[in-house]
Structures are given as structure tokens and as C-alpha cells.
Amino acid sequence: MKVALLTMFNGLDSTYSLVNVVAEQLRMLLNDNVKPVMLVSENCPLDSRYGIFMDERIEWRKVINQINGNQIHWRDYSQASGRVHDTFNREADVVADDLIIKLSDVDACIMHDIHYQGWHLLHNVAVRKAQKKLPNLKFTAFTHSAPVNRPHNPEWPFSARYTSMPNTIYVYPTQSGISALAKQYNAPEGNCRAVNNSLDLLNYMSDEVKRIAEEVDLFSPDIFVVYPGRLTPGKKFEKVASLCGAIKKNCELSVKVIFCDFPSADIVPEQYKALIKSTGINFGLDLEDMFFTSDIDAFKTGFPRNGVLELFSLSNLFVCPSFSESFGLTVLEAASKGNFIVLNERVPALEEIGKKLNSYFMKWDARNFGYDTNESYQPSEEAYLKEHAEIIINLIRENQVVHAKTMARQRYSPQWIWFNQLKPLLQT
Hints:
Blueprint: E1 2-6, H1 17-31, E2 35-41, E3 59-63, E4 66-67, E5 70-71, H2 88-102, E6 108-112, H3 121-131, E7 138-142, E8 168-172, H4 178-184, E9 192-194, H5 207-213, E10 223-230, H6 237-251, E11 255-262, H7 269-283, E12 290-292, H8 305-312, E13 317-320, H9 329-336, E14 340-344, H10 348-357, E15 360-362, E16 366-367, E17 372-373, H11 381-398, H12 400-410, H13 414-427
Parallel strand pairs: 1-2, 1-6, 2-3, 6-7, 7-8, 8-9, 10-11, 11-12, 13-14, 14-15
Antiparallel strand pairs: 4-5, 16-17
Helix pairs in contact: 2-3, 6-7, 6-11
């Protein structure tokens, strides 16, 4: 599939919010191996491209913006009646002829504010003229501002801002505006859809986290756990895996665990990793639910601290069943990034910090001052984990901050928006 984005940008200044929306849609297309074509004004300087706009897979096509050697000057026709300038129709014909050529080989065209903005009335009319020669081309018309009231009996060409175009789906960022959108364009509500703006968190993260994202789905899991530490039995990695397995098995949620590990002389890494994986599987995880950053060559000796903090900004549950801690700085790091905190109550340092953070406590084996504790679960460890897994998930669901953080990551990610809202429109 080849998809055109018709923006008529004169520049790519990121302070213009629509530029950022288009940038994220380009990422969506490219991530799903869809060929994007960017249609901009011929006055748009391509040497100012940056970020995703530099991707060589994007084909740039400039739409003509001159007639008889003179630049076309856009004028704001936001009114519903009146007169257009003398060369309006000739300019619209020139642009239409160019659009026919530029859109001839694409399967779908996404327009951004072309039908809405008064200063794009020229392009609005030109697209309608071009469509007559492109009957099989699907159009999706985004409106990014509050719909305006449709005047009574608007006059042509001003009526183009209040009239639907054939083979076109009209789009607004929220469902609440669909009725008003339909009224502006005099279109059936069935021809209107909501496509939310997306939050591309990964775009603002380090290359190290982006490298992890190539291996692990960081955005769709219901429960996302990050556990950093030296790969030693004292950190009880397997207990993190077992609790996460109980959550997945008993609460019917998708779970992802990333262990940001670094080697220890206490045990052969592969031997301990095998134990952690088998424990997680025994309690309900699948093998692909667990990932060790040390499995990537670049991170065999450890994952950068700033990368861990970035991952904490995406995760929503932190579990620390460690056998011994003198302080537990990772607890503060996870808490500072809005995670629900579960700690080993038997470790004095964790109990002290956890009470200040209003954390949730569970009981695992621990080292205290001068003695060790050994937990015995009745009727079984499986039953104990099931009980606490259900309580933890209920508390997470009731926690407004954790819920909002999770929804921002899951529901408004570019991946979710693309596969659930935008891509289906282009394939309709």
C-alpha cells in the first residue's frame, strides 16, 4: 500500500502542532512497512528536514504553487459567501492538474485540514477537481480544530468548507466532536470517525531504550515490570517472575518483565537465567514474557542507568523481593516514575522505605540484622501468590495515577492508534 499525506506545509517547524501529528503518522506508516508519500508546497525547504522527516523511505513530492511564473498567494476564505480573487479558479485548475499527477499511483490520501482551513480553500477546491480524475483513490480528511457551524445555503466555492467529498472519510481527534464534524460537512455520521492524537513516548527516549524496543513490546502489556540488579540469587529474580506469572494466570492480563541485569560472580549467568525462566513459566508466564537486557551484546555487562529510569517511566509495577538491601535506591527510582511498589516486608531497609512510600508488602525470605528469615506459605506458595496478585491488580486498577500512566502508554501509543483506528480507515 502507498499512502500520501497531503499537508501543503510551507515548512517543518515543530512548534506547529500539526507537523508533530504528521511526523507520528509517518512513523506509524513506516513501522508497518507502508510506503509514505509526503505532499508539501513547492515552497517547503526540504533542506530543513530533521528526525523522522529524514527517513529515506519517505518520498517527497512538491505540489505546484505558482501560475505563469508567479507565486500563488494563499488567502483566508473563512467566510461563507462573498467573492474570491480573480485568478482563484485558474490557480485551482493548475493545482488540480498537478495533484492528479502526484496522486496517480497512491492507494489512499490523508488530508490534514485541507477541507477545514479557510486559507486552504484553493487546495480544497483543487482536490475536488482532481478527484474526478481519480475515482478509485480513497481520501481521509482530518480536521484538527473544533468544527464550525454550517451556514444556511453556503455559496460555491465557499461551500467546499461545508460539503462532504465523495469516497472520503472525515476524521476528528475525539469521538465527542463527531456529531459537530458531520454537521459542518453535511456528511452522515457513518462517514465520520475518531482517530486520536498519539503519544510517541519512544521518540523521546535514548537509543538504548529504542534498542530494547526492537526486541520487546514496551507499550501494549497491561502489566509492565522492570527489575534492575546484579544477576545474583540474593536479588531473587525468580520471585519477580513467579509473582508476575501469578498475575498473568489469575488476573487474565498481559504481562511483560524486563530484567536489567549485569553479571555476578555468585552464579553462572545462563544457569540462573534458566532458573528464572522456568520459575516464571511454572507460575504462568510464557517464555516471551521475560527478557534480559544482557542478552543483547551491547548490554552484556549492564544496561545504562538513564535507560533504566526511562524504562521505569513506561512500567507500572515494581516488585523487589530482594533477600537483602542496605537502602534500595531502585525503589525510589521506580516510585519517582509512578510505579505501584511491592516490597519484601522482611528486609528492614525495604520496610523502612516502603512505609514512607505507602508501598504494598509481601513476605519473602530475607536477611535481617543478625539472623535470616525463611517463609513458609500455607497452604502453598501458589495460593499465596494468587491471593496477593489479585489484591495488587485491584489496587492498581483503583490507583488513578497508575491507571492514567498505563492508559497513556497503551491506549494512546502510535501502535494502538495505527492498528485500531487509522489503518482500518485506509483499508476500508
